[in-house]
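Predict both folds.
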Amino acid sequence: MNVLPAAGTVLGEAVRAALLAAGFGVFVLAIERWYQRSHPPVEWTRKTLHVGFGVVAAALPWIITSHWTLLVLGMFIVVPLQVARRRGWLPSLFDVERPSMGELYFPLGVYLLFVAASGQRVFYIISLVTLVLCDAFAAVLGDSYGRYRYRVHREQRSLEGSAVFFLAAFLGTHIPLLLFTPIDRGASVMISLQIALLVTSFEAISPGGSDNLVLPIGAYYLLVKLTPNSSAAIGLQLAAQLAILIAMLVLAKRTRFLTFSGALAAHLVLYSAFSLGGPWWIVAPVLALAFLLALDRAHHGRLASAAEGHDVRTIFYTAIVATLWLFADNAFATLVPEAGPLSKGHPFHVLFVGALAAALAVIASWSFANMPRFRRRAPFVRSAAALLLAFVGVAWPGLWALRGEQMTRELGVATLICLFALLADMGLRRLLPRVDFGQDGLRRLALGVLLATLVVLPLHLWWQGLSTRDLLP
């Protein structure tokens, strides 16, 4: 590298990016040649590219200095690959049965990690290990030796592959932490176990190659959050997560309300509430899950096949808005410097609870429209009943668990979120006339709940003595 122009200069960055792009092109053509001559499984050729690209990506902080260089380099890689996909070129990469956008998510995940982990090279390497080596081992070994399989949307995974991923993630986290950081051995073991279990769960339920984006960012976030804690504190978190995971798996097995992937997704939502918010934050999602189970039993599983149960998609669209507000509350409290009033008192807890209650209200209104007892009632009556169920079942106990009796304004905010979510769903149903209980209906549900929380947000901040400008760091 000494013969190249200095890193950080325009010429130095351009030369390094050109060399990386050329090397990537040669590597892709070599893999295609291998595929045309020897006809190995496409999964092998894809994962070979995955690992090769990942090894180069791991060295990027020592090669280039500007994220703009990486952004331009990523465009020079992604655009030709998308052209090749559309024209049927490079079957060694794209001749797969399952739909995947991994070649797009991978560069995006690396770029975001490069930006976020600036100055944290050990964390950067660990996060890439979970993306590159763990995913490759799990895919190849799971495909070859996996006997116990489960479905994630339209894809199939294996328990053996997930076990390989867990072991590789544990070692890939523990060894670098032990060798290159001052973290003691006990804390390193507990942190590695916690991260391995979490990223394995994320990988198991990420369809369409989205794990290439979720895993590196998620692993880095977990490293930042967990490494300052003691081994005892992490042990408590790990025990809580295992308890929640076991409870969801038992629920899935006994009721068939959830598939295996649905149970993993539900456990991640519940554990996120427990870990990022606190023990009392788990009340609202547990109650929402309980009432969704009751509604599902009342009208025979209209959101999903009763034989299959609800998978990761149902959990994702039902809880995504609430989870975003959970992360916002935690980020302002722990990650955003000088967050001011937004770092105290959990100002987004009411939006978290309100989003869960609103999702329940919308689903309840769908359910009531298909129950013989409510079907002939006026839509206003069904909506009022759904709103009452969400208020009594989720909003009131979810807010009371954290705030006690001092929650009059918060109850008003949560009720408004539920009301606006019902109105938004009615409006979106006219604009987007699709099947209520399919994936399109679930997307509409998430969009309606998001719009409702954003509409109520200024009023909530005003009651807190804040403004929307306080959301800016």
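Second protein follows, with its predicted structure tokens after the sequence.
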Amino acid sequence: MDQFLIEGGTRLSGEVEIQGAKNAALPILAASLLTAEGLEVDNVPPLQDVRTFIRLLERMGAKVTRDQLRVHLDTSQVTDWVAPYELVKTMRASILVLGPLLARFGEARVSLPGGCAIGARPVNLHVAGLEAMGANIRIENGYIHARASRLQGARLCLETVTVTGTENLMMAAVLADGQTVIENAAREPEVLDLAQCLIGMGARIKGAGTDTIVIDGVHALHGHQYRVQPDRIEAGTFLVAAAISGGDVTVQGVNSDHLDSVLLKLKEAGAEIETGLTHVRLQMKRRPKSVDIRTAPFPAFPTDMQAQFAALNAIADGVASITETIFENRFMHMLELRRLGADIRLSGNTAIIHGQPQLTAAPVMATDLRASAGLVLAALAADGTTQIERIYHIDRGYAQIEQRLNDLGAKIARVKA
């Protein structure tokens, strides 16, 4: 099992190209199940989660070819509508095959999903929405077994905002009879990216990116070529890395509109920020100031940037509170930050962080994807060499992060435990 050894105290500078968004690529790959004509997707990031999802599609009978960041998917020969536990258990996003399989083939058997241990993330909203569209669903032996001769359009009001739930129901609705309205829909850019891909395939969708999405079902979708949007969370992570190291870093190939809430907090922390059409440059010329964070669905502050800002607040001047409203178990990295000398007090879903002038290296353990990123950033600011175990988590969402940070001046080695 690999681990990182990170020598802290280096200042980052330079440019880094941001890759395609994992959280947009995965549902778009799932959308290939909706057509027999083939889907070509460009800017697909070379991540473990992507490789797992492609293996899942191949397990069902899809033919997948990959040329660097371009993936061609042919699902015309899919005959197996089962998403097995051994593939689904490592990745929550596997649930995204449920809607497309049911819409096109009339049946799906999908294992209850796994992924990072950051909260319950129940699938009840997916199931309730599909049942409202006429599906017959049973949950037994750890699997969701769904059948429908033909899904019917329906009015769906989601109890809570759910990104994967919105995406799953939207994909199911594009081939349903009649009109489907999804109320209280997720507004994340990744949802809009999926909708634009589906529209390119012939779907009739209005309102994506708002809290009400209207889908008029069509008989079939056709093939398409689509490019995945840049990863706003990866971009935000590199910008916080620049801030925590007192650096000067430009992230290239980004949509700064997707980063508004993150950039606002970085400016509040004292960073100087310049934005262009496809780049953001951050300079931090002083010790960061503490900033209060409250996570919430887009366009508010993203839960996937919470751990990174916990690291920044750990070395900032002042006292800050971080309140997590999305996932109930997403503070496990706080205990590891304490091992580095962070002064953190936990009270329910709120962490109070008293910034320290200096963190100190120590062995720590990554507990989930974004926690891994937070620990890497904290290690960049710590005195000495920090050892981070279980870094397989970070490989799920950041491709070659150690090499790309090293290109900016970091000193990170990947070694065998």
